[in-house]
Design brief:
Elements: E1 2-6, H1 14-25, E2 29-31, H2 44-54, H3 56-67, E3 76-80, H4 82-93, E4 99-103, E5 119-126, H5 133-146, E6 149-156, H6 172-190
Length: 191
């Protein structure tokens, strides 16, 4: 699989590179664009301020430019938290998208978006202050209505960005379970 993996508001940190290496070790080709031009943060608040400073339109433009050279191949879009929202936006707008792997985040859906049974897998903490139960229920229904084939995995007691070992949310057990399920999902897309 060809995978376009987007970072969270913390920027392109070592944990994102490690995730890309894990995917590569499983036989996938992975691209990890740096939407923040080398800037990283330990704090969610600083990261959100950076996201807002750059602006949604510019970040989306950067993401599209990063994916464009590879989109003809049929990409799987993936991302962490904010990066998941970017991945979702691109996947739902790319008729050649092969799949969508969301880690810790979702996004609003554009009106009248439609896909042809796009495989989607979401991994999220339970509870998660950024992905509330009500939001996830509405998101799931909208994704299904749009034509996506959606699976949601919840990890009770994990923090929001629980797959990043350098952040306070780190949960080794939840992270390993997430990667086992995600790698199986990606393997199934090859068939």
């Amino acid at each position: 699989m060809d995978i376009m993996l987007f970072h969270s508001v913390h920027g392109l940190r070592p944990a994102v590179e490690a995730a890309a290496d894990r995917l590569r070790a499983a036989g996938h080709r992975v691209w990890v664009p740096d939407l923040f031009d080398g800037w990283t943060s330990e704090s969610v608040e600083e990261g959100m301020a950076k996201r807002d400073e750059i602006g949604k339109d510019e970040l989306l433009r950067r993401a599209i430019l990063a994916a464009a050279p590879y989109s003809e191949r049929g990409l799987v879009y993936a991302g962490f938290s904010f990066g998941a929202s970017v991945a979702q936006t691109l996947a739902l707008g790319d008729e050649k998208a092969r799949g969508l792997l969301l880690l810790h985040g979702t996004s609003d859906l554009a009106p009248n978006v439609a896909v042809d049974e796009l495989p989607v897998q979401l991994h999220v903490a339970e509870p998660d202050p950024f992905e509330t139960d009500d939001w996830l229920s509405a998101w799931y229904l909208q994704m299904r209505r749009a034509g996506a084939d959606v699976e949601i995995y919840r990890y009770r007691g994990a923090g929001h960005l629980y797959t990043d070992p350098e952040l306070p949310d780190w949960d080794a057990d939840a992270a390993e379970r997430t990667w086992a399920v995600a790698l199986s999902f990606l393997e199934g897309l090859d068939g």
